[in-house]
Specification:
This protein is of the alpha/beta class. Helix content is about 35%, strand content about 20%. The protein contains eleven helices and ten strands. Strands 5-2-6-1-10-7 form a six-stranded mixed β-sheet, sandwiched between helices. Strands 3-4 form a two-stranded parallel sheet. The chain has a two-stranded antiparallel ribbon with strand order 8-9. The longest helix is centred in the last third of the chain and has 16 residues. The chain is globular and about 45 Å long. One of its GO terms (molecular function) is stizolobate synthase activity.
Length: about 280
């Protein structure tokens, strides 16, 4: 159990910084990116060298969809293999990064709009470890996950994210992990190796999302159903899109937008990722 003294010791060890930590939205795509040398995983590795070394990493993963909001609060979160039909090598992966219960407690205190539950059962799912193991292969930086409340809409998640802004001043790297365009039912499985192949509606919607992000016009992104039938094709279910709301909700007035891994996969998925940095 995390004591008040442990909480104070941890927060005291994270002095405010002059420079805000960047915020990321990462298109994670196939779990195989976690073990394969792909253009996407190579970019994740390079990304870590372009930003300050974080004091901790907090990930909002599309693969932890819960009733209510939870945050992992164990000393050593387990590696979760939440998929099927992949090679044994993927199931053999362990990412033994520590947790940070004191940071979990601090986060619950920052969030006033919801009762956040300290969770000791989940761990790091593939929306987290497939990315972070490429960024920080030594597994020496604490990693936590914040769940997505499936009973709430995009506006709720956007506003909740704004309450986490103080963590950027403490050197915490916050990552939303999902995919902007994510329609598995329409994947062209025979075109997975062709990163230039995307359905017209998927590429067009992805471009619309990017344009709105670049202009800082978040309202249509929050109310994405108003963007037409292409938006509903791009987001047939919300779990892979909602992590983007956390990234955008954390944007500050001086943050500049850049994109990376801006590719389509299998026609109906995009790996397009966002970096916000002052």
């Amino acid at each position: 159990m995390t004591t008040l003294s442990a909480f104070k010791t941890f927060t005291d060890s994270l002095p405010g910084q002059d420079q805000l930590m960047p915020v990321l939205f990462v298109g994670h795509g196939s779990p195989m990116n976690g073990i394969e040398d792909t253009e996407f995983s190579r970019r994740w590795t390079k990304l870590a060298s372009e930003i300050p070394v974080p004091t901790a990493v907090l990930v909002v993963s599309a693969h932890w969809f819960t009733r209510g909001t939870r945050i992992t609060a164990m000393d050593f979160p387990k590696t979760i293999h939440d998929f099927g039909g992949f090679p044994q090598a993927l199931f053999d992966v362990q990412y033994p990064a520590p947790g940070q219960p004191a940071l979990a407690l601090e986060t619950t205190k920052l969030i006033q709009s919801a009762q956040v539950e300290l969770d000791h059962d989940w761990g790091l799912d593939h929306g987290t470890w497939t990315i972070v193991r490429h960024m920080y292969p030594k597994a020496n930086i604490p990693v936590l996950q914040l769940s997505i409340d499936y009973s709430k809409g995009p506006q709720y998640h956007y506003e909740l994210a704004r309450e986490l802004y103080a963590l950027r001043k403490k050197g915490v790297l916050i990552i939303g992990s999902g995919n902007m365009v994510h329609n598995l039912r329409m994947v062209a499985w025979d075109r997975l190796k062709d990163p230039s192949y995307g359905y017209d509606w998927a590429v067009g919607m992805n471009d619309t999302f990017k344009s709105l992000i670049e202009s800082g016009d978040h309202k249509p992104l929050i109310n994405y159903s108003t963007l037409g039938k292409e938006a509903l094709l791009a987001i047939p279910t919300p779990e892979h899109y909602l992590p983007l709301m956390y990234t955008l909700g954390l944007q500050g007035p001086k943050d500049k937008v850049s994109f990376f891994n801006d590719k389509a996969v299998g026609g109906s998925l995009t790996m397009t990722s966002v970096k916000l940095a002052a």
